[in-house]
Each structure stands twice: as C-alpha cells, then as structure tokens.
Amino acid sequence: MAEWFVVCLVKCDPSSDREAFETYPIHYFTSPTFPKSTKPSKGRRRELTEEENDEIKEAFELFDNDKDNELDYHEFKVGLRALGFDVHKAEVQKLMRDYDRQGKNKITYQDFHEIAAEMILQRDSRDEILKAFKLFDDDESGKVSLKKLRRVARELGDNVNEEELKAMIDEFDLDGDGEINFDEFLAMLNSD
How far is CA 78 from CA 64, 85, 133, 179, in A? Predict the structure, then answer.
C-alpha cells in the first residue's frame, strides 16, 4: 500500500527521487536537528553539494577560535548554530561524548563534518517528505482523508478503487480517526 503513495509522489513531482522515500529510516524524518545514531547510515542517500561541504568547512574554521584544529564544547555548539541548527546543551553534550574518540572533550574537523553532514541530510529529507505530504493535504488540514486520496488517484489517472483507498486509510490510520496525519504518513512511507 505504501508503494502506491510513493508512486503518486513521483508522478506528482517528477523531480522527486522515488528511492529517496524508501531509503531513509523513520528517524530521518522525525528530528530536524541532530543524528539519533552515531553510526553511519546505510542505504543510498544523496551526497552533500560542494557548497554544503564548503559551508561546513567555513563554520569549522571560523569557530575554531584557538586554531588547534579541534572544537571545544562552545566552539562546536556555535559552529552548529551557524549552520542553522538549533541545538541544545544536552544534544551538544551527547554528540561530544559520542564523537570524542580521544577523550579530550574536543571535536575534530572530520567529526564535525560527519555530524554536520548528517544533520543537513536529515533536514533536507524531512523537507522533502513534508512537501510530499502537502501534495495530498491540499487544504492544509494536517490530514489526508479518503476524499483527498480519491482526488489524487483521479488526477493521476490511477485506477484505484474505493475499497483499495479505504484499505490504505485503515492500514495506516494509527489513531483511528479515519484520516492519515503527518506522523502516520511518515510511518507509512517507511513501512515494509
């Protein structure tokens, strides 16, 4: 059933990468700020642009105040904020613990780049999913109803019958309100 939604998304926006919706685990869409895991993710993902890589390097160099090629807690937090991430003390401390391999309470450029890249990719993934959700949620109610599914199927010329559309709602409507909200939409796109 989730496959039909992905197909609809690609048909509605041909620039969308069908695989993009299938290669990200759910946590990529639920945290706009920092990685949930310190392990590199698997699967196919887009690469950072040259501009994004340059921004990460600039932020590191700009906020490495003592020019020791490492960032302390304050430099690290300010560097992430300069890249547009609203990180909180606990998040920064956790990342420092997870990435401080030498036990110096410092973050190397390599680690900073890895963390910032993950955060950028997560942010972009969530934006794509939100854009996709809005294709179905044309009245911005925050929910996808049977009526909206019917409209999208009709607009795309898909021959999906009423029973199949109802089955989609039933399968992914976790709160039982007869509609699919954004969280349910995320879960649906990541179901297998």
Answer: 10, 9, 33, 41
- CATH number for the domain whose boundaries are 50-124: 1.10.238.10
d(CA 107, CA 88): 17
pLDDT tens readout for residues 112-145: 999 999 998 887 667 777 877 888 888 999 999 9
**Would you list the domain boundaries of the chain?**
50-124, 137-191
pTM of the model: 0.49
Question: Domain 137-191: what homologous superfamily?
Answer: EF-hand (1.10.238.10)
Core vs surface per residue 43-56: b (16+ CB within 10 A) or e: eebeebeeebeebb
